[in-house]
UniProtKB/TrEMBL annotation:
This is Importin N-terminal domain-containing protein. It comes from Tritrichomonas foetus. SUPFAM superfamilies: ARM repeat (SSF48371). InterPro entries: ARM-like (IPR011989), ARM-type_fold (IPR016024).
Amino acid sequence: MIHNSEKNNEKGASFNLLFFYLYLVNYSETYNIQFGRLMLNEFHIDSNLLENICTILDKVTTPDNSVQKMIFQEFQNLHAQLPTFSFYLVSIISSDQFSMNRRFCALLVLHKIFYRIPQQFTEKFIVLIKPILEQIIKMPFSPFTNVTVSLYSSLFHLYSDKYLIIFQDFFAHILTLFHNPETIQIGINCIYELLLSENDKIPIEIFNLIPQFINSPFFKEALLVTNSLMKINIDFVYNQIIPSIFSAFSNFDEFSMSKAAEIVSYVYLTYPNQVIGDFLVSCLNCRSRIISESLLSQLSDPKSIFPYPPLILALLQQMSEPDNDCTEFGPSSMAQQIVQTMNDCYGDEISNIVKSFLPNCENQGHFLRCLYTILSTIPDSSQFLPFILSQLECQHLHNITNNIQIDGTTLQVMNGENNGEVNVVGEFRGDAALCLMSFCFSNPGFVNDAMNKIIPLLADKDRNVRFQAILALTELIEFEFEPNFNHFFFLINLMKETNNSEIARLASRYSLHFPIFNDSQPIITGFYQDLVLYFLNYNSEHCLYQYMIDMFSLFILAVNEPFETFNKNVFVKLLTLLNEIFDESIFSSYFELTRSLFKAYSNFFPAMNGEFLQLVEALTKKMLFVMMNETENILLVKTGFEILEFVFSIFVRNDSFKNCFFELSLRYFSKLCEEFEDFIMNIDIVKFLLLHCCQILTSSENISNGTIDIKILGLCLMMQLTKSHEKVDPNIQVLFE
């Protein structure tokens, strides 16, 4: 919200309140006697209740927040019991029989509860309150003005579409606010709120006022309005407001400069001319974090940025100082990401600019941050590898000159300034790790070596280095590489020691690269048992929980020999978890775990007792229930269907389970086929379900209630046969017509 101008001192406010009171008394004599009679006659206003309301109103201005909450709750309860409650408030506001304080409090309460008015009274309420509000708006500034305009604007926002004729003069009354210096700020505030609500009815006469306020005491408010306006009328902002911003910019405070930079940066995406580009360069050269962050935040889609060379150079210069905290994604990281994405879009045009800038880098860190933006795409990236590796190995080397060959030219990068200032190399290891990751995109054969170099940095003493190592490994872990047990258990031990979910995620993703684990190693079987206990005993809200479950699913399939004895507790726990509140992410992990269990222990199922069969049946039902309601999640649905295929193959000889399987499938498979046209079902399941449908349709039992569902399922199943190039018996086709 934009607050009232501070220049309205207490003395001036008191004078305006007195003036307002005298004005309102005269207004009441000419308008509200008739209005009051109308209210009393049409809505049967009870004088005793009116007096009770006034008594409560006297407490509204209490400074005690708890008392205020109780009062407004009391009014809400009264409104729920008395549909015409709002009209009581209107009668108080409009009548000079009540004190100014009561009338003001009635206006405050009305502003909070007017939207609760029953629909049958809405039009009458608007007809009655609108002229009162408009009259207050025309009066000199007073404490009533701000609340009145806010209520007036809210009524317009909610009801103008339905009562267009009633509100046709709304903006004419709002324009009057701009004729009085004391109410200009309230007028701008009103327009700002309307823009935030994406109102498209604001006339050009209102917008035409904004440029003149850019170069006035109201420039802060005008910039906020422009920030919202540019989303709906960028042409007007470019043609009418941007010139005013350019001329007034030097007079702004730093925060307002940041807002102006944000606006101009957004406009540059549509109007990428040299004048705007140069303005953005000058903003970045201010070296103000708040200005840079505001400007760069609007360039979040670098694909839309015109590659203006001076702007690219200014972005590269932003990387001269690393962000104090890499996790906060400051100006250096923002500029780096923008240039990198632009390089992906424009190729040589950007990489040549970056290469030309590299000799101007202030130190090795700056060099690495700039190099990172192009390293994944340039064909001659190998020439930088020795320098990158040297930075990963450096610990405390000071003032050392590094010679690098770039396109045949020798470049010297100083580790310290020429004045002898010490610059510790340790802070550059994270930048080197990111460069090495970027290098692997154009040199995937180097991934194993890169992993060897970067994984140890996860235990670095520098917090930023650790974070940058995680970023680098997050990308590298998705490449094809030869997994290393030492790396994996380094991640596991680090995860246990730090309770860091990012490390846990890396360990989980790393484990996927092992095709099989050798269970003869004690460390493997020990961790396997740890995963079982973790699953059975830990709270699902623990930060490591889901990653441990994902690794548990993998270990079940990847270890040579599963548990010697089947652990029923795992199934019991899983069934309990599936009955908790659905969360798409964790349920995907539960489904993967279920699939792994069914697949690994399929040989055990025929020997299971009835109790265990009931657990499997209950688990299957729960998964089908979830999938029935989450068919938009394709991965979840297909995982669930694979589980059902396992279940079907295991229990195909169990008659009782066949019936259960059919009942579960009746709705689920029909919906699955409808949602996914390319879905192809296991042909044995299709034939089983189709035969079951035929048996039911040809039976003598009364199945009228379920005939439609069975026929829908039958049609879906016959389509599945067609997709699998299987012939459909004409006699079966007749049954489902």
